[in-house]
Design the sequence.
């Protein structure tokens, strides 16, 4: 039986661990050839690639630090060489996943923290999308998914104001761009995860119980549960879903 993403090239930013890794593995299982982007941990990116290959899928790791415009350009350029140039510069799926969060009172936050949040969570997905969407528009086909957050449309907790500001920005970017690209064959959607058990947000961290209780299912989600939502949005037959920010949060923002 053919797989839904066969002959598609997908790029998942920040996919050496967490939600990004689960997404790379899921998209490969659905038939895509996947570029696994990482910034600092080649061993972990290699482990994701190895897992995909072991399961019969296709993946390549590409190093690019997306906290800088140079990293964005490097990653975009890597598309031309991906899988020996097999896709001829075409890219079908972009998942803007890499992100960072720092906790603490806003009034004590630093300029460095502002730069860290906005460079990785806002500037890099916007700049990367600008480069990659041009490739997609040329092909009259593409799927872009921005990983925002349940904090992308509400503020149920204190101490994450800077992060909330970036995720609202990404949410708005998704909506605005979906309007601009709507007639081109390229869809732009978002996924807004609630608390997911990753190294960014471990379910056994101090205070994690508060987040658990804010969900109606009474637990943290698994990275695979976000990957499943992303896999749905990038399917060829999800072509009428555009400008949606799909909340996958165990009922947090109900
Ligand atoms: N875990 C959660 O509860 C949760 C909830 C809502 C939204 N999110 C969002 O989901 C996304 C993934 O989060 P996660 O929980 O898997 O986090 P994580 O920290 O486990 O993974 C983040 C990924 O981004 C990569 N990354 C970090 N800095 C980078 C850089 N400069 N350049 C390239 N890659 C870089 C990391 O290597 C890693 O692969 C983030 O955008 C996050 O804001 C997570």
Sequence:
């Amino acid at each position: 039986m053919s797989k839904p993403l066969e002959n598609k090239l997908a790029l998942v930013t920040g996919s050496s661990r967490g939600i990004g890794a689960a997404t790379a593995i899921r998209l490969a299982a659905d038939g895509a050839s996947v570029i696994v982007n990482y910034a600092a941990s080649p061993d972990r990116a290699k482990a994701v690639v190895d897992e995909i290959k072991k399961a019969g899928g296709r993946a390549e790791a590409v190093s690019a630090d997306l906290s800088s415009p140079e990293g964005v350009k490097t990653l975009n350029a890597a598309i031309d060489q991906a899988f020996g140039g097999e896709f001829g510069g075409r890219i079908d799926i972009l998942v803007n996943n890499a992100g960072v969060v720092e906790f603490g009172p806003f009034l004590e936050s630093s300029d460095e923290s502002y730069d860290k949040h906005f460079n990785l969570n806002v500037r890099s997905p916007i700049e990367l999308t600008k480069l990659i969407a041009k490739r997609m528009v040329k092909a009259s086909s593409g799927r872009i998914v921005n990983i925002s957050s349940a904090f992308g449309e509400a503020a149920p907790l204190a101490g994450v104001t800077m992060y909330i500001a970036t995720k609202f920005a990404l949410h708005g970017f998704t909506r605005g761009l979906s309007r601009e690209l709507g007639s081109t064959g390229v869809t732009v959607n978002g996924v807004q995860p609630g608390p997911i058990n990753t190294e960014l947000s471990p379910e056994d961290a101090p205070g994690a119980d508060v987040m658990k209780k804010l969900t109606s299912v009474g637990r943290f989600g698994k990275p695979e549960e976000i990957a499943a939502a992303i896999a749905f949005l990038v399917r060829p037959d999800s072509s009428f879903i555009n400008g949606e920010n799909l909340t996958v949060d165990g009922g947090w923002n109900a």
About this structure: The beta strands are 9-12, 33-38, 58-63, 93-96, 142-147, 186-193, 245-248.
